[in-house]
Design brief:
Helices cover about 35% and strands about 15% of the residues. It is an alpha/beta fold. It has 3 domains: about 5-185, Thiamin diphosphate (ThDP)-binding fold, Pyr/PP domains (Rossmann fold, 3-Layer(aba) Sandwich), CATH 3.40.50.970; about 200-360, TPP-binding domain (Rossmann fold, 3-Layer(aba) Sandwich), CATH 3.40.50; about 370-570, Rossmann fold (3-Layer(aba) Sandwich).
Length: about 600
């Protein structure tokens, strides 16, 4: 006899979900039984930690556009999901969490764990998801599954939680009386597409024509709309500057002469310099967060602005745009490009020459860093060696902190598309290893490369065993400085004699390559520049997962303001940390 776990598994498969990431519990075993009967259409990847199940589902969703699905059991399983849920919520990533629950009749006993592992899961998930539901009956379940997919994929996408009581999961499924159907529109985000009114499109086009120094800033919304090719073609015709956020990296081909890289304190010097000179900034699928907005110093009061976003609440959050365009990025950029008519490339020779000049200056400085023979190793040297070996379809998964900056600045996106996966919704450490598992599940024939510092890599060492178990083609690069690099430099610049960022001592030095070997991966340790290339060759040629641990300079930083302060010396007056990140007044963007 079929059970409700079969119904759930069948609906997931019919919705186009190929993989579920998670960890079983007694309350959710029916789901796993249902999946096991449908392995030709859907499979389960057993994770070592429920938090990592959400991260794997997040990466799966970013690369496919389909909702990433993860499953956890009641109580201790459920309470580990919020880190991944918040990442997906803030980054607008469609995700569905299937959460086990106590039997319905036991819910009055959930408080204080009187019924084992019970707590108020519905309120808990309502605080960290787009929406959460407790399934009240067997009859309601099919509609709630359809609703979960629709809400997760509709603008603005995000994670949802479907909490299913144990007695419902285990109940019999009478296929004759409880029919199921799915909505094929919600298989992939965006669920529906919309565009801005024609008069708003024309107003934006007129503003672009009047501009002398336009700039295009591409955020993660470009990828969420599957609009990279359309946006890249628009950038070709704009005749201005193009940059991206970290999440938007890959929205444009960064080898183009107008592409200045990533706009972020961790990103490109050229992007940071040139964006200041623009008279018009087009924020395309970007929420103008603290980092992309350079601590909200952007846009400048004199800069005109166009905002393109599917979320009405983003048009005016920190500034009033000159022209807001509400709707799907792909649809709006297509309409805007048509409204512009002839290409504007070549019509602003002074601005285009200035862009090339600044980019070339930045590239010369980067070339010196890449050529460094220093020991300990310079991180740009490592990134350049990775870049040489990446295939057209290979995926780079970044962890948080300095790793994100090293990737952003020294591994260029050579074609439009989501080749780079960044955890910037929360920016929490520990994303790259489980994220790579999700990425490898979607692209088993390409190489997945992760980059993480030793602090971030320590979070999820156990998931290396998952990579080994499924023999995934993952190269994990650990840039090990024995420190929490960002925190150490922050402490040195703004405080004195603080040692809480040190991760090792002379007598205790964790060996990540050795740990990888013990877990069934290929482990390689590198501490000299001429060893980097051969180590990466061995890892890329290996038929399975590997870890390349590289000993790097513990003073290296991709943050340009930190580099400047270090050059100026520690005796210079130190500003109070609280003055560094200060929200400026809400601005009104002018017309041109």
């Amino acid at each position: 006899m079929a059970h409700i776990g079969d119904l759930v598994a069948e609906m997931l498969a019919q919705q186009g979900t190929e993989v579920v990431f998670g960890m079983p519990g007694g309350q959710t075993t029916a789901l796993h039984d249902g999946i096991s009967r449908r392995t030709d259409r859907i499979r389960h990847i057993l994770m070592r930690d429920e938090r990592n199940a959400a991260y794997a589902a997040d990466a799966y969703a970013r690369l496919t556009g389909k909702p990433g699905v993860c499953d956890v059991t009641v109580g201790p399983g459920a309470n580990l999901l919020p880190a991944g849920f918040l990442e997906a919520l803030n980054a607008s990533i469609p995700m569905i969490g299937i959460v086990g629950e106590l039997p319905l009749d036991w819910l009055p006993l959930k408080e204080k764990g009187i019924a084992s592992q019970g707590f108020d899961q519905l309120s808990f998930f309502q605080s960290c998801s787009k929406q959460a539901w407790l399934v009240p009956s067997i009859a309601a379940l099919p509609e709630l599954i359809r609703t979960a997919y629709r809400v997760a994929t509709s603008p603005r996408p995000g994670p949802v939680a479907l909490i299913i009581p144990h007695d419902i999961f285990d109940a019999e499924w009478d296929e004759e009386t409880l029919k199921i159907a799915v909505d094929d529109r919600s298989v992939q985000a965006p669920y529906l597409r919309s565009t801005a009114p024609a008069d708003a499109i024309e107003a934006a086009a007129a503003l672009i024509r009047r501009s002398k120094r336009p700039a295009l800033v591409c955020g993660g919304g470009v990828h969420g709309s599957q609009a990279a090719k359309v946006v890249s073609a628009f950038a070709d015709r704009l005749g201005g500057l193009a940059v991206t956020s970290l999440s938007g990296k890959g929205a444009i081909d960064e080898t183009k002469p107008y592409a200045a890289g990533v706009l972020n304190p961790l990103g490109s010097w050229a992007a940071i310099e040139l964006i200041q000179e623009a008279d018009l900034v087009i924020w395309c699928g970007s929420k103008v967060s603290q980092n992309t907005g350079m601590n909200w110093t952007l846009p400048k009061p004199e800069q005109a602005t166009i905002t393109i976003d599917c979320d009405p609440l983003e048009h005016g959050r920190t500034f009033r745009p000159t022209v807001p365009l509400l709707g799907d990025v792909r649809e709006i950029v297509t309409a805007l490009d048509a409204a512009l008519g002839d290409s504007l490339a070549g019509t602003r020779p002074d601005w285009e020459a200035r862009i090339v000049e600044v980019i070339e200056t930045g590239e010369r400085a980067k070339a010196e860093e890449i050529a460094s023979e220093a020991v300990p190793i310079s991180p740009p040297r490592v990134m350049a060696e990775i870049a040489k070996r990446l295939g057209d379809d290979d995926i780079v998964v970044s962890d948080a902190s300095f790793a994100a900056g090293w990737i952003a600045g020294y591994i260029p996106a050579k074609r439009p598309g989501r080749q780079f996966v960044y955890a910037r919704g929360q920016g929490g450490l520990g994303y790259s290893v489980p994220g790579a598992i999700g990425a490898a599940a979607t692209r088993p024939d390409v190489r997945i490369v992760t980059v993480a510092g030793d602090g971030a890599f320590s979070y999820t060492l156990g998931e290396l065993a998952t990579q080994a178990q499924f023999n995934q083609r993952i190269v994990n690069v650990v840039i090990n400085n024995g420190r929490l690099g960002w925190i150490q430099l922050w402490q040195e610049i703004f405080f004195k004699n603080v040692q809480s960022a040190i991760l090792e001592t002379q007598s205790v030095q964790p060996g990540f390559a050795s740990a990888a070997s013990a877990l069934g991966l290929k482990g390689i340790y590198v501490d000299k520049p001429d060893e980097i290339g051969p180590a990466l060759d061995a890892a890329f040629d290996h038929d399975g997962p590997s870890v390349v641990e590289v000993r790097i300079d513990d003073r290296a930083t991709p943050i340009h303001s930190f580099k400047r302060r270090m050059r100026e010396g520690s005796d210079k007056p130190r500003p109070r940390p609280g003055t560094v990140y200060k929200l400026r007044d809400w601005k009104v963007s002018p017309d041109l």
